[in-house]
Amino acid sequence: MQYEAPQTLDAALSLLAGATGQARILAGGTDIMVQLHMDTTDPDMLVDIKNISELRAITETDGAFTIGAVTTGAELGENEAVKKMWPGVVEGLELIGSTQVQGRATIGGNLCNASPAADVIPALIAANAITNVVGPNGSREVAAEDIPVGPGKTSLAQDEIVVSISFPARGARAGDAYLRFIPRTEMDIAVVGVGISLEVDEAGVCTQARVGLGAVAEKALLVPEAAATLIGTSLDDAAMEKLAAAISAACRPINDRRGTIEFRTDVAGVMARRTAKIAYDRAVG
Amino acid sequence: MDNSMDVGYSADDKELKFVGKRTNRPDGVDKVTGRARFGADARLPGMLYGKILRSPHAHARIISIDTSKAEALSGVKAVVTRDDFEDRDSEFVPAGEMMVNYRDMVRNIMAREKVLYDGHAVAAVAATSVTIAKQALKLIDVQYEVLPHVIDVVEAMAPGAPLLHDDLFTDGVEPKPTKPSNVAKRLEFNMGDIASGFAEADEILEKTFDTKPVHQGYIEPHSCLASFSENGSAELWCSTQGQYLVRAHCSKLVGMEISKLRVTPSEIGGGFGGKTVVFIEPIALALSKKTYRPIKITMTRDEVFRSSGPTSGGNVRVKVGITKDGKIMACEAELKYQAGAFQGSSVQPGCMCAFAPYDVANVNVIGWDVLSNRPKVAAYRAPGAPISEYAVECVIDELAERIGMDPVDFRLKNAAKEGTQTAYGPKFGPVGFVEVLEATKALDHYKIPLGPNQGRGIGSGFWFNIGGETCVNLNVNEDGTLTLITGSPDIGGSRASMCNMAAEELGIDVGLINPIIADTSVLGFNFLSAGSRTTFACGLATIEAARNAIENMRKRVAQLWDIPLDAVVWEDGAARPASSNAGEFEPMTLPEIAKIAPKTGGPIAGHAEINAQGAGPGFGTHMVDVEVDKETGHVKVLRYTVIQDAGKAIHPSFVEGQYQGGAVQCIGWALNEEYVYGEDGRLQNSGFLDYRIPLASDLPMIDTKIVEVPNPNHPYGVRGVGETPIIPGLAAMSNAISNALGLRMSELPMSPPKVLKAIKEASV
């Protein structure tokens, strides 16, 4: 296996373009190193992109943030501006693994590893995040929910790199949150994960909402039917019941060692209600 | 030496200087600086790396094994298979806290006719690098005929279940069966008249409980380094709870004299009973014998889960009858324990411990040792006892609730005490169960009010504790320090405890004693560090070695002063004239005696060789408060207190550590730990991600209360403390969750999906 650690984006792109066999991108390495140890991946080339400084930048223009793809959970957790605007996204990234893992695991890596149970993806979907992708034919923008297509599979070509993730500016009365269910308290993988972002008017009525749902399907889902149950409400009990029902209806989980179909479907509704309340409280301020 | 040293010590009334004190641990600095050498730290020049090919099938006949391509790979130096291990007779010998059959063991370390579980070793290679060794494994062609498998214990007992061994006939049933089965053995313990006992009961409760196999979860994987010499001798370094048992097993399995194999134990990163048997060690020796190169094998975490020895899962039916004022009249239980792929589960101690905490006249316990396509079980702290006592303590708790009696009072009313006849044989000597329960009632913890969705549970437990063969040397060095040489790997602070006892005896500062864990060539046979025997048995031998050293020093001084031996006494670390009759002499301190040893007869040492008897049983109670999230089934542990009789806590910090560690393992076993198998019979959670042991963030501070009811058979009153702490917690957790929810659960683990399901079923 060939290991390369280019210093520039152009160098990384040309390495990928010139790869003869399977090439994989290494960012924080918290997934791919485990896969290598477990013999579940065997690439011909590993392109380590974490030394590319332009992939680490965090910029803001009129309230719109762009976060470099190799920004780690620990870095984002120390960025007060991002935390203030997108606490749910930071929560999603910051609770991956242990403190040590959070120093390595990156926002782009968690997205592109395309685990159905990835913590940051439901939060990115809820935030209406756009990924900025660069390949040999230039750049394109892809909605976060369109990156994963199945367990470990993305819509990206082998010679494309996610450079950064952009978050739209939004009004003052807005909030987001991410909650997951795990059997323990940390260092675990989501059995269910829910990201919700919403905006409210001066009366506290929800005007916009997006809901991302993880670990209950082959990939993280955007659930507009669930978002629709929130809009026009102040998240009263009736709305919460409808939200839970819409979320449970969107679940198509499997029975596995982490949970049963029945359990995941039930708990997804519970987590959605709790997540919505947190996002709402943040929006109302 | 005086054999009466084995039993009948009388506790000394004088104030203790080191026993019972929190002295510095001798291994502390090296462990916190990373200098301590664990199993995987061993290396030698010219070392090769061994890797093991393991079965992907739960049950299959091996048709052929072709290793030619692997052997041809550059960098591969040797390959071993079943053909490299001589078959053994069916012969039961002690291994760990159980009996092991070498015919089975040779098949467990390397499959012969069949593979019997996912992860069963099939072949091994030695190569110049791990990468080459792994590559070589892929080149070994094994042809299997896949057979139907059985994982569940009850299914394995059913007629028509897939048979693991066609030559296994159930032992202990009359008439002797004519057809083979997966049931290796039936056991029965009886006392009194069970039918009349139930006839006198006002309330009878009968329930069946299920537990899943769980792994000891030691963080350090099995690792060893073997080096065979052309002269036929070999050295082995490994992480183990008993180097002498490793020597016995390996020499038998590899085919060499015991004296030709020298085994050195490393520092141990957890064992809990799981490092009392051998897995990789004979394979490393066989590869080294073929190459005459040192071979290192370190298991991956996946291998530890799939291929070492977890403890049994069990199916336990318990029936208890009581009077309406809370007297237990009759106890009945039937225990079905998984043994794994070979016979020898811990069902026997499970049967013996089941009702041992209670003074009951009528008891009947039946046990079944059942094979299935899982790894062969190994010991795990108080092997067998947590499974049976969990079921009993849940039933006891529910009965107390039925008659409206406080659960501690109920236990107090029925508690075993001195003179209580056990169902398994002996009458108890002085035991501390009543004192433990009284201490439990007195806890502030017991009085803290609970909030909504919170519950409190208690459970109790009993373990025998054991003694056994032990050999200790204590060398008096020329500078006045001492080297204490024991053969018991330090799995729970034994070096510190031994030093405390030796210092107390010698009347010198504990820091002057340097403890060493010896390899098998240094001392005579020492049994395992297991069974809660080490502080008791190794402690007795250490005390005896110290007294022997003192006697030897007194002899030197008596000779020097030219007075009789009994005119020289040992006090406060010095030899002194016994009385004015002995004459006027200045006391001689230990360093002074050591310094002139060459002139008085040469080096001075103390020795002890004993088979320690008179271990004192250990009783404990756990109290736990939980909060259940009724919408998700998640259980949070709020408060936890362990109350246990230590006899005497030689080093209280280590005793507390044993209590706390046991409680944490109970919490894991109760809430999340389990072996999860797929339909294909393969283990699905062979890593710490999906095999969930508790994390620090999952736990409250585990509080402890050390009760001390001395064991009269030890000079300081030591019982053992390592096993009992893992027994009471399973029921305490279950009873706490039951109390929070107002419903009774009867299976482990009480993972969120199961708790939520129970809540939903109860609300229908």
In short:
The complex is a heterodimer of chains A (about 280) and B (about 775). By secondary structure, chain A is an alpha+beta fold.
Write down the CATH topology of the domain at 384-465 and 616-763 in chain B.
Aldehyde Oxidoreductase, domain 4
CATH class of the domain at 384-465 and 616-763 in chain B: Alpha Beta
Silhouette of chain B: globular
How many discrete structural domains of chain A?
Answer: 2
Low-pLDDT residue spans of chain B: 1-13
Mean pLDDT of chain B: 95
Beta-strand proportion of chain A:
25-35%
Q: How would you sum up this structure, described in words?
A:
- The complex is a heterodimer of chains A (285) and B (764).
- By secondary structure, chain A is of the alpha+beta class.
- Chain A has 2 domains: 2-115 and 129-167, 2-Layer Sandwich (Uridine Diphospho-n-acetylenolpyruvylglucosamine Reductase, domain 3); 175-284, 2-Layer Sandwich (Enolase-like, domain 1), CATH 3.30.390.50.
- Chain A contains 11 helices and 14 strands.
- Chain A has helices spanning 9-18, 32-37, 73-77, 80-85, 87-94, 99-102, 107-112, 120-126, 224-230, 237-250, 261-284; strands at residues 2-4, 23-26, 45-48, 58-61, 64-68, 130-135, 138-143, 148-150, 153-154, 161-167, 174-181, 192-200, 206-214, 221-222.
- Chain A has a 5-stranded antiparallel β-sheet with strand order 4-5-10-6-7. Chain A has a 4-stranded antiparallel β-sheet with strand order 11-12-13-14. Chain A has a 3-stranded parallel β-sheet with strand order 1-3-2, covered by helices on one side.
- The N and C termini of chain A lie far apart (52 Å).
- The model of chain A has no long low-confidence stretch (mean pLDDT 96).
- With 764 residues, chain B is of the alpha+beta class.
- Among the domains of chain B are: 3-36 and 467-612, 2-Layer Sandwich (Aldehyde Oxidoreductase, domain 4); 384-465 and 616-763, Aldehyde oxidase/xanthine dehydrogenase, molybdopterin binding domain (Aldehyde Oxidoreductase, domain 4), CATH 3.30.365.10.
- In chain B, 27% of the residues lie in helices and 25% in strands.
- Chain B has 20 helices and 28 strands.
- In chain B, the strands form 7 sheets. A 7-stranded mixed β-sheet of chain B has the order 3-7-1-14-11-12-13, with helices on both faces.
- The longest helix of chain B has 28 residues, at 534-561.
- Residues 1-13 of chain B have low confidence and may be disordered.
- The A-B interface holds A 38-39, 181, 183-189, 191, 256-260, 262-263, 266-267, 270-271 and B 134, 302, 631-634, 671-672, 676, 684-685, 689-690, 692, 694-695, 697-698, 751-753, 756-757.
